[in-house]
Structures
1.
Amino acid sequence: MSEPIPFIDLATQRRRIAGEIDAAIARVLERGAYISGPDVAAFETKLATFCGARFAISCGNGTDAIQLALMAKGIGRGDAVLVPDFTFTATAEAVALVGATPVFTEVQAVDFNIDTGGLEAGVRAAKGQGLVPRAVIAVDLFGLSADYDALNAFCEANGLLLIADAAQSFGATFRGRKVGTLAPITTTSFFPAKPLGCYGDGGALLTDDAELAATLKSLRVHGQGSDKYDNIRIGMNSRLDTLQAAILSCKLDIFADEIDKRQIVAARYAEALGNKVITPTVPSDCVSVWAQYTIRIPDGRRDVVAANLKVAGIPTAIYYPRPLHRQTAYRHFPSGGALAVSDRLSGEVLSLPMHPYLDEAAQARIVAALD
Ligand SMILES: *Cc1c(COP(=O)(O)O)cnc(C)c1O
């Protein structure tokens, strides 16, 4: 029996930069500043430079990042925030945590992302419940950015704030512009399995707005003002660990190369699988970071295919088996429309092993097992 194929291979990356990472960790331990300090500031500058945003504000994780964005804009009780129905729970959870109401809207089968055509129905559903529509949170699912031209146009026309949940897409490009600069506020996550992941929890917000950046910096440390013990707003305790910042700095140095490697892996999948299953497509003027390589298997065959792959030693994952509007804690929230595409996708999607170090031989085994 050949080697087991990992779903995401963090060990190969670790071997590649073990020397750099171990030295960075040792430096933090020697210096003795475990919270904030120069390593966090240096990483924030590097992160902002990487994507071209003016400000990067790091925080505890990607869920907190969304919550901080909503808090900074004073979104809460009586407000509605439109979110795609087909996403990770955290997108809607952050909305509920600030006391606002998530309104689930339709997604597109072609790229799994929010369907701008469904936003109007979401606004109507919110108003029908006596809520004030305040914001849209777009999610760049599986690493491909949503259509930010259409989203910005809709949000501007309707007086809504656009937040980009880029937990899966940091490093991606939309029509020549990098994720982090596509919406007034972008949030991301450094959970280990994300394209840019640390060795624990971490997150960040990106913006060009100096005033918003200052508010976010206050909010992430208990709402502190210029006097540390005169807090000027209710905030959170949500800082990025200094160790994680040092680790992320090393990982960011090879991130562009890893994104290139992911393109090669995705292209090999597309070539080998294009005639067997529905493979994901990326518009020619966009670059996905392939947080997941998610195929679609229609006609109720998905679970059988996944079981066959498992027998062949190929791990797969289903993101997401249940859309938000069908989850226990969320089903009482309003929906904009029937959400038929979202329902259909949850029965068809299957994510295959995907990481920059997936070699041709392993991919050939995966492809063969799909026959
Ligand atoms: C991972 C993820 C989050 C949450 O990030 P954490 O760092 O785990 O809190 C939010 N939204 C999406 C779309 C995600 O994939």
2.
Amino acid sequence: METLDRSYFESLDQVDPLAEFREQFDLPAGHIYLNGNSLGVLPKAAKEKAREVVEEQWGQGLIRSWNTYDWIHIPRRVGDKIAGLIGAEPGEVIVADSTSVNLFKLAAAAVKLNAGRSKILSEPGNFPTDLYILQGLESFMDGKVRLVTESRDCIMDAIDEETAVVVLTHVHYKSGAMFDMAAITARAHEKGALIIWDLSHSTGAVPVALNQVGADFAVGCGYKYLNGGPGAPGFLFAAKRHLAHLEQPLSGWFGHANPFAMRDDYEPAQGIERTLCGTTSVVGASLLEVGIDIMAAADMNLIREKSLRMGQLFMELIELRCGQFGFGIVSSKDPAVRGSQVSLTHEQGFAIMQALIARNIIGDFRAPNILRFGFTPLYVRYVDLWDCVDALVDIMTHDLWNKAEFKKLTAVT
Ligand SMILES: *Cc1c(COP(=O)(O)O)cnc(C)c1O
């Protein structure tokens, strides 16, 4: 076996087929960024695009730009590009709203499509907004449906004839654990249930083949692995076979068959546009498109290969060099069930992460004790992993985390 030293990691970077993508990102000098699973890095081209959209399209074009720059079709145009990243067809994906709002629209639509069934199934410990949105829907349904959560290991058996819709996050935000999308989708259909996949930690991170597995619906996030910028719009997917019957509760004017006919009565658009509600952020969607264009130019198989290798090497380094410091490794060593992050536990996790961040090595912390390290193969180098663990060894050996300044809880962790 290779010796795990810094030069070994440098040698991996030298033959990395994705290495040249790093140039396209405006990563501040001296930073190691292992948090692209929470907020992706600024693409250099997004700066010019922001200037163009604000100064030219908005500033000079004013209202005319709805037509001259085709603002009106941005949700669909950018959605079609995302479709290529998640194994969907053009016309099945649209950019709109936030992931949370998109989940509400689709969960309500699914419950209506499967009327008469009483159960929405999810897992405890799913991303909070997913559970909160489903709780909100449950409360609006006046007892007609109830949210039931079952642990990951029992989820297959919990899908039954009473299940209207299964709502799961493909890659878990805390542990990085990945569900078998094909198997669970097949089970849902066997029982007559619909399924919604939350792809927030999957899109741009792991291969996703929605139509190949026969998924019904999906939602996802623009500001994580797609590098769309803080608060970038989210997206949603609805399989073509459902579009004609899909009714969603936020029936705003952008979902109308003809928004500018300005009629009093709602009539849903024929296609995926019926899932729109109001005006999509043009600035947000334009910047998201820049991130997606970069992602679309990269080979997802290479991304996955590098991401898994990074995860494996990171865990090996932690075991090799941090064994005596009390870290636990939460993420699975089995690549079949691991997304693009590695999570560690430590009782001083928050302070340790703050000490790393003070050195411009940026991961994040999730209560109560999880340190997350996300791997984004387009701009993270192998040598960054070595340097990160090297800093961790220093921080732990000399108790450098044990300072008041590293223990003050911040609003966003
Ligand atoms: C990040 C994330 C979201 C984000 O939802 P917003 O509406 O954009 O705030 C939703 N679901 C999951 C699983 C996430 O990881």
